[in-house]
Amino acid sequence: MSELMTKARQLDAADELAGLRAKFVLDEAVYLDGNSLGALPAAVPGRMEDVVRRQWGALRIRSWEESGWWTAPERIGDRIAPLVGAAPGQIVVGDSTSVNVFKALVAAVRMAAGDGDGRDEILIDATTFPTDGYIAGSAARMTGCTLRPVTPAQVPEALTGRTAAVLLNHVDYRTGRLHDLPSLTAAVHEAGAYAVWDLCHSAGALPVGLDEHGVDLAVGCTYKYLNGGPGSPAYLYVRRELQDRFDSPLPGWNSHAEPFGMRPDYAPAAGAPRGRVGTPDILSMLALEAALEVWDGVPIDAVRAKSLALTDFFLECVAAYVPEGAVESLTPAAHAERGSQVAVRCPDAGDVMKRLIENGVVGDFRPPDVLRFGFTPLYVGFADVERAARILAGILD
Amino acid sequence: MSELMTKARQLDAADELAGLRAKFVLDEAVYLDGNSLGALPAAVPGRMEDVVRRQWGALRIRSWEESGWWTAPERIGDRIAPLVGAAPGQIVVGDSTSVNVFKALVAAVRMAAGDGDGRDEILIDATTFPTDGYIAGSAARMTGCTLRPVTPAQVPEALTGRTAAVLLNHVDYRTGRLHDLPSLTAAVHEAGAYAVWDLCHSAGALPVGLDEHGVDLAVGCTYKYLNGGPGSPAYLYVRRELQDRFDSPLPGWNSHAEPFGMRPDYAPAAGAPRGRVGTPDILSMLALEAALEVWDGVPIDAVRAKSLALTDFFLECVAAYVPEGAVESLTPAAHAERGSQVAVRCPDAGDVMKRLIENGVVGDFRPPDVLRFGFTPLYVGFADVERAARILAGILD
């Protein structure tokens, strides 16, 4: 057994989160694509059976009250809250990430307009996952703003008295780079603008600290590190102090102060429910609720520590096994700048990923030349990491 | 046995759709709330088990291709298409009805703007389900239009050279009144405006004829007469000739011409996928797909004929059993003006509905004084109808 295999065993033996793996349905493959779709939590199938057969099939409409369907968006939001450093009552679950980006960004621009100093520019992360940019373009167009893409590092110098809102990704979907949320948020605030963060690639993998750092609005998906299932609903965070000023571009009946009053005039609900729109997709939402139970008693700091240990070890194994120069890492070496994935660039990356998958190592390929490996600390172990790097080396050799 | 009980037996015996009831999970209650939440189709639990355990649990991300997750929104749209009189390739499933109303109405206003004659008014059904009005208000605000609520009957005279778009409900959620889609659509077109129809309370209960009548855009939910499950995704219809001019206010990455190209600039997909936004909620969506299988080989004209026979018979039984003057029907007597529900008004309607439910007749209450009874032709029979009217009479007596 190689030195790194021995080290992997030792790391696994010392891993205080190792027991969580049993709470997921996994097979012999090394699954390093949890940053695309999280693995199935073992509690979900039984819960879905109950939701479908008993709650829908037997109780039918009574479930809106009796099974807690109606309040699910806020209740599940409160389950996500501690994972992103938010006190209860500030997160609501529902709709896709794209739709929530639209709500958050339009609301932020309206808050800036309410401040009365004529701000008309939205700054956006130029390296963002594209949907954020497309939606930000629409938000700008519909609010009379201009959209200005800059790299996150350029944000402090790009902020001006015209800046209304800034939309940033906490972790870059491609490179895995972690951006400095506390200092960027502070810079945005110093310029008198509103900070909107996209947490898709950070929530569930590392501490976010929304309340602590005074983030204004945030959105995120739940099907990556939160394991909510394919296309499970996204969430929207609106800081408590801003909730009364949250003016939604999608004021559906679920966000009304009195949804069953059926009143012709809109009056927004107080608190997190103001971020709701239409009828929540209960099946997807309650699968997410069951999936979130794996987090009970799991400290996010321990998750972060293991995540860094996993990516460190992967980089170590790649350096040891892979011929020098065969791959180039896009992921920052500094812990403070690293999310929970490692992205490497190599020629023929599409083919390499295909062969990796054939050999039981599941990551994904992002054109033109990037191999992405996501490390979900809840179910990936150090032996998985060593094996993935070893198989990658074999393919590249 | 009373005369009406005998008649119910005869009607059930002659009902060519009676066999469909076995395709649903029902119990001894008379379920007349399918216009709120359709009953569980028997095929759904097994399908969900497969989707959760095999497609998500075992295949994981491979299911985006191998299990057809990626193309589900268009594929399921094409399954809904024949039920609303649409040729394939014009309907996409996803998001809530409210979100789709926003897409459709903003797109309609932009089409009108593209026509170049400075139209800046949206007409809306003043008796609409409130969410349509709230969302239309936002669409108007964000496109620089004014919103003018009128009753559907007033639409023809309210149309002017300023009218950009008209949003109407095919069937009124409260009274069950069916509006005249062909003639109203023709009037809207004659005025040079765009017609947007909300089909929530008609699709699956009666023929709609979207293509035949030249409807421009339409939206609808799938959890009522289509039995898709609580909060199952809604759908958006864009007439083929208008697809190239559909300019979405929610241009998420799923609507991009090349969604996996990860390009910074937005370029809309051709056809129905242009109406997509973010990642589709697969669990809810595939439950809907299984639910739609009950429609295989079911002609919508036969469904309409049975629906009218059911509501006729309910009105007949109510007239025979309920003391004169105890209830007042809000549902038009004329078939051409009746959807698939009967709404009656009575004092203490909330308490009456509570006692009906206790006695095994499930309808719903809409403030301040309306009892709603929905008749889903796929699983409601004539004996159910007679029993419901008899129990209602007993409570009111």
UniProtKB/TrEMBL annotation, chains A, B:
Q: State its Enzyme Commission number(s).
A: 3.7.1.3
Q: Which domain of life is it from?
A: Bacteria
Annotated pathway: Amino-acid degradation; L-kynurenine degradation; L-alanine and anthranilate from L-kynurenine: step 1/1; Cofactor biosynthesis; NAD(+) biosynthesis; quinolinate from L-kynurenine: step 2/3
Query: Keyword Membrane: yes or no?
Result: no
Could you say which cofactors this protein requires? pyridoxal 5'-phosphate
**Gene Ontology annotations of biological process type:** anthranilate metabolic process; L-kynurenine catabolic process; L-tryptophan catabolic process to kynurenine; NAD+ biosynthetic process; quinolinate biosynthetic process
Instruction: Report the enzyme's class at the first EC level.
Output: hydrolase
The record's Gene3D superfamilies line, in alphabetical order, gives: Aspartate Aminotransferase, domain 1, Type I PLP-dependent aspartate aminotransferase-like (Major domain)
Which positions in this protein are listed as binding pyridoxal 5'-phosphate?
97-98, 129-132, 198, 201, 223, 253, 279
Q: Which NCBIfam families match?
A: kynureninase (TIGR01814)
Q: Can you tell me which family this protein belongs to?
A: Belongs to the kynureninase family.
Name used for this protein in its record: Kynureninase
Which species is listed as the source? Streptomyces colonosanans
Q: Which gene encodes it?
A: kynU
